[in-house]
Write the structure tokens for this entry.
Amino acid sequence: RRSIALSFNGNIVNMGELRSSLGLPEGLSDAHALNRLLLGTLEEEGSIQEAVKLCMDQVEGAYSTVCLIDDGTLLAFRDPLGIKPLCHGCGEGIKAFSSESVGLDINGLEYCGEVSPGELLWIEEGRLHRERVRYSGRRAFCAFEFAYFARPDSLFNDRYVYEARVQFGMNLARRFEDVASRCDVVISLPETANDAAYGFHIASGLPWEMATRRHRYVTQRAFISKAEERELILARKVNILTRKIRGRRLAVVDDSIVRGDTTRSVVRRLRAAGAREIHLFITYPRIIAPCFYGIDMATYSELIGAWRTPEEIAEEIGADSVNYQPIEDYVKATGLRRDELCLGCVTRRYPTPRADEMAREMWERLQSGEEERGRIYEGWC
């Protein structure tokens, strides 16, 4: 029998159908499903291209994948919409793949470009081959990468992520000039909002204070942790410089608000430090719907923005105002067109049909008082 080692970033939306068709037991991950699908075709056809074609025909969702086959062939492929990032690089006698360009940089490798949506690259006997296996007619790159997930020194679409984040901050200062004019100082929540805070400072003319400092050895992400752990993580992760806060009206720049409990905790700590006013400026538009492509915000009920206006959110978390960057400003700052991005979590319109169907069914179930399910381990998809 053939064997394969697989590394996978993403989430399969039609996991239920795949599990049934492949005869997989409950509880196995979507990486297992991809592995089984690829192996089955390789054993029958012996062709890498045919195996990846079948995978792209049958799998709906986000999957940036790198595999090593038992014959020594290294291959990488990306879903036809290119939802998750994937790039490739080279060095002296080396070929490499990475989700972000920084993975190549830190290993002294040259960035050679992105793996295109629907493209297969494979290295056989030291030579790189590539083939566009499937073409969907559009791309749908995850918009949240620019605001939160990606490192600022990564390249997306031949542009550093930090450049987009600086523009986000400039957009917010200009869009909400009346609110910004009532503030004394700009601060950010480290570290993904730092570049945006710098842009806000440039456009508003307000001084920028590094009044929050991150503990370099606490690496957990608060929004993907359990609710009871988030406040403890945040308290350990971010220190507030009280003397820079006391008596001042704050423009607080942050990347996003998902569930709201992390932001509520920050606002409470800033109030305790003596802030006179707290105005939040959020680079990512208001999140109103789940993600089915790999970000841990899978249900409507956990999202503070799904149910409330910005004014209601401000009241709920104890801020004086919450100011979200509009979708059109955000899109323009990324350098991509709107139809090149997945904006499902801020529009309720998804780039794949099963995700659209799931979002609608979940909303209807929730409205009727039934249990809302969204994660693959809950047997929903």
